[in-house]
Amino acid sequence: MESTVYTLLERIFQTVFPLVAIVSVGYFYARWRNTDMSIANRVNIDVFCPALIFSVMSAKSFDLPTYSMLAIGAAVVVLGSGLLLLPVCRLLGVKGKTFLPPMMFNNSGNLGIPLLVLAFGEQALPAAVVLFLVENLLHFTVGTYMLDHRTNPLNVLRMPMIIATIAGLMVSSFDITLPTTAQVPIDMLGQIAIPLMLFALGVRMTSVDFTHWKVGVWGAVLAPLSGIVVALMLYPILNLPAEYFAYLLIFGALPPAVLNYMIAERYNQEPHLVASIVLIGNIGSLVTIPVVLAFVL
User: Fold this and answer.
1) Residues forming a β-bridge with 106
2) Which residue has the higher pLDDT, 232 or 210?
3) What predicted TM-score, i.e. pTM, was given to this entire model?
4) Which residues, 6 or more positions from 158, have their beta carbon under 8 angstroms from its beta carbon?
């Protein structure tokens, strides 16, 4: 038993540590040479991230109705976390548009998917992709509207990430097999997205004002706590199978997505604060994720 727990914790560490390592590379490189990531960030959002989303969504066929209640639960966890923590913003003296998105939109892609597969095996992959899809759609509809109320949510359908999500879902739903000559370059472009996001976060950290580190620590505590609380409240309502509830609980405990920082920078919504919340939140996941896994496994 002890060896199993040790192995699981070691693998979790091996999943999270590379994220911190790449952020550190970006930080120290930018300290060495003046680095402007604005163009790279724009290309990442418009090209690399859509390629990653399409690659994930189209890689494996799955039946969405089977996971309908899980998808509803994920949506409630995302939105419920924001509502639950709304009063906290005033107590912390931080703007809701700055603090709430990282609390709501978690690292369900580059951490959530491999973590669920690692903990539960390949059979968890369809559920992990559904959770990622729900979080991604909400991020670029509700999340974008939170930062700019003038944004028409329907206009978000023209965003490359949303188009890639819909296209990937169609390919998966209709069990379409893309030719290798098309799939391989899409996969290769998608593989650029996550390291570049993390590297850009590290670059941004060179200008972070660490006088606001307390907000980052609060975020590291409240992001998983709010998600877990909402997931526990949903358990008797959704009547999910035990395994699906475990997926939802882990989903609620995930740290803020790196993408929160990139979107905050695009909308000039205190990206220095968001970067601190995201970085400290992901470091904090080295503690929270093993605790949650110990509870559900």
Assistant:
1) 256
2) 232
3) 0.78
4) none
